[in-house]
Amino acid sequence: DFENAAFTVFVVLVSRVILAFGLSLYIPLSKVDENMVRAHARDAVTSEKFWFRKHMAPPLQSVGDADACEEMSVLEILTGKGSYFPGLIPLIFAYLEAIQCDPETLELMRVYMDFIRRRASGQLMTAAQWMRHKVTSHPSYKHDSIVPGDVAFDLVQACVAVAEGRVRERLLLGKQWIKPLRTDDAYYVPLKQPSTVIHREEREALLERYASRYSGAGGEGDGTNDPDDVPLRRGDAPHSAH
């Protein structure tokens, strides 16, 4: 549920960013089809590149082709590429600053975004990689592509244990762990909504502060100075981010 919450919040925030910053993420449908084919490859998140729009917003200065697309890794799409593509995660934090997100919610957003970034960089396993690892490392598996019943049973039990917070799986979730779901400490913190669309000059100023913090494998959140472990409830997605 932590993983579901992270990706749900990410998608919602990207949709808010598109509307607030007036972005365009349109690419030719043929490129979308090609991306879908590439996404089916094993370990595509780290091994494949996907077509993405080079310029998501009208720049302050003229560029050659504002509608141009190029191939990018998932990590580049998330954290930025060169000086022309800021990345989705820096855009999200620029948006959260623009709407004056409260510190508690902002810190949870940092946890979610860092989790997604580390998945894209290969620092954390995807769910598919983790399940393959559990199967291939099981003593009953003979590496013959046949999954015995006890291997399948143990895999399901391991998935349930992680989801319920009874087992901490660093290969999958890193330092995060999930505490049993409770309702007595639920909370609601509304975000301040921008009264108007964020204009180009303000958008550029915000991005200048955030884009350099997520430069691929380096910069803030690169795992070299991880914060203390942060316990999270199952499905810990604050209402304020929806």
TrEMBL record:
| Keyword annotations | ATP-binding, Glutathione biosynthesis, Ligase, Membrane, Nucleotide-binding, Transmembrane, Transmembrane helix
Membrane spanning segments where?
6-29
Species source reads Haptolina ericina
Q: What class of enzyme is it?
A: ligase
Any single GO molecular-function term of the entry would be: ATP binding
Write out the pathway annotation from the protein's UniProt entry.
Sulfur metabolism; glutathione biosynthesis; glutathione from L-cysteine and L-glutamate: step 1/2
Catalytic activity reported: L-cysteine + L-glutamate + ATP = gamma-L-glutamyl-L-cysteine + ADP + phosphate + H(+)
In terms of domain of life, where is this protein from? Answer: Eukaryota
A Pfam family matched in the record: GCS
Name this polypeptide is given: Glutamate--cysteine ligase
Is-annotated flag, keyword Metal-binding?
no
Region described as Disordered: spans on this chain: 212-242
Quote the PANTHER family the UniProt record gives: GLUTAMATE CYSTEINE LIGASE, GLUTAMATE--CYSTEINE LIGASE CATALYTIC SUBUNIT
| GO BP term, pick one | glutathione biosynthetic process
Taxonomy of origin reads: Eukaryota, Haptista, Haptophyta, Prymnesiophyceae, Prymnesiales
- Biased-composition ranges for Basic and acidic residues? 230-242
Enzyme Commission number, as recorded: 6.3.2.2
